[in-house]
Amino acid sequence: MAKAQKNISEIDPVWSRICHEAEEAVRDEPLMGGMLHGSLLHHASLEGALAYRLSLKLASPEMSEQILREIADQAYADDPSLIEAARADLVAVNERDPACNRYIQPILYFKGFQAMQAYRIGHWLWKKERFDMAFFLQMRISEAFGIDIHPAARVGKGIMMDHAHSIVIGGTAVVGDNVSILQSVTLGGTGKESGDRHPKIGDGVLIGAGAKILGNIKVGRCSRIAAGSVVLHEVPPCTTVAGVPAKVVGEAGCPQPSISMNQVIGK
């Protein structure tokens, strides 16, 4: 048994750590044993656990847990990049969120992580031209988590959505890798225009709480969007913008704003 556990750790250290944390949690809080076994310890892989957890959270009288789990299993089997992105998101949350000190927390409790993984399955459906099912999943994600991401939006990996309440991302939005997004952020359009109408967010960007980025504009890599800002024009790379409407107020202040999570202007 010890040899098998060592092999699991060597092959998949992330999943091995998740299982170890879950076992510790069962010892510390036996009343959580059923939930921890059902959500994590009864599964052989991270993708199996995520398929179960997401289907449980998104099931409704209109769509059963079994159907949603089958869809998630199909998505993970068809596109390995989905679970690669999930792992990157998991590490991002653990590294950037000071409230997170275990990998099991985002999987079990953080709606930002859960909503992002559910969106990824919806985006897989969209690419398969299963549009109605993708829209249904978008609806349930919004109802269950309070986060509205259009399934056509393109979102990179290593995404951290802190608190995540009331985040809106439009259908032609593009979000790069290693981006951190706080609560009440909107990546939206400016009116009733059609076509390519939503923001393009570069790698390593930090978007502060309540920021609104509107229109088909580029936000350069490793920039900072201050909390409460309304961004209507292109943001140069490695800068900080603030205000209504937002203006450049200085440099980003560090090489990777989304990782440092420093939101204080002037530092």
UniProtKB/TrEMBL annotation:
BP GO terms, sorted: cysteine biosynthetic process from serine
Keyword terms of this UniProt record: Acyltransferase, Amino-acid biosynthesis, Repeat, Transferase
GO MF assignments: serine O-acetyltransferase activity
The protein's annotated pathway: Amino-acid biosynthesis; L-cysteine biosynthesis; L-cysteine from L-serine: step 1/2
Reactions mediated catalytically: L-serine + acetyl-CoA = O-acetyl-L-serine + CoA
Domain Serine acetyltransferase N-terminal: 14-118
Top-level taxon in the UniProt lineage: Bacteria
GO cellular component entries: cytoplasm
Annotated CDD domains: LbH_SAT
E.C. numbers: 2.3.1.30
InterPro entries linked to this entry: Hexapep, Hexapep_transf_CS, LbH_SAT, Ser_AcTrfase_N, Ser_AcTrfase_N_sf, Ser_O-AcTrfase, Serine_acetyltransferase, Trimer_LpxA-like_sf
Family to which this protein belongs: Belongs to the transferase hexapeptide repeat family.
Name recorded for this polypeptide: Serine acetyltransferase
Species for this entry: Falsihalocynthiibacter arcticus
